[in-house]
Amino acid sequence: MKKNYGVTVFTMPHCPACINLKKWLTKENITFTEKDIIKDLQAQKEFEDQGLKYTPTIFIENGEETHKFIGSPIKELEKILLLESSSQ
After folding, report:
1. Residue-range domain boundaries for the chain
2. Virtual CA dihedral for 16, 23, 13, 73, nearest 10 degrees?
3. Is the pLDDT of residue 86 over 60?
4. C-alpha–C-alpha distance, residues 35 and 33, integer Å
5. What is the pLDDT of residue 12?
6. How far apart are CA 42 and CA 62, in angstroms?
7. Contact partners, residue 85, CB within 8 Å, separation at least 6
8. 11 CB burial (10 A radius; 0-12, 13-18, 19+)
9. How do residues 71-81 score in pLDDT, each as one tens digit?
10. Angle at CA 39, nearest 5°, toward 63 and 75?
């Protein structure tokens, strides 16, 4: 069962983990906002202002709390998003 969450992903164009994460989110039909810190100066400023250092950085918000992940921790993302993993 999928829940409604706001998912934001800070990325860079040639980041393999970013590419894999975006493919996984798309495959699971999870709507997300991508913020490319190389192509988008506003995204870059937001990234730096939050003290972030690595991509992908994922924020998942449900209105009550915000979860932050760095990298592509698929198992943890599945748990937060309450997804039935097709790979299990």
Report:
1. 6-85
2. -50
3. no
4. 7
5. 98
6. 23
7. 74, 75, 78
8. buried
9. 989 889 988 88
10. 45
Closest C-alpha among 6, 20, 4 to residue 55? 20
SS3 labels along 17-55: HHHHHHHHHHHCCCCCEEEECCCCHHHHHHHHHCCCCCC
Q: State the Cα–Cα distance between residues 21 and 64, nearest whole angstrom.
A: 24
CATH number of 6-85: 3.40.30.10
**Is 60 a residue whose pLDDT tops 50?**
yes
For residue 49, the model assigns a pLDDT of: 98
Q: Quote the pTM value.
A: 0.86
Average pLDDT on 24-30 reads 92
Tally of CB atoms within 10 A around 35:
20
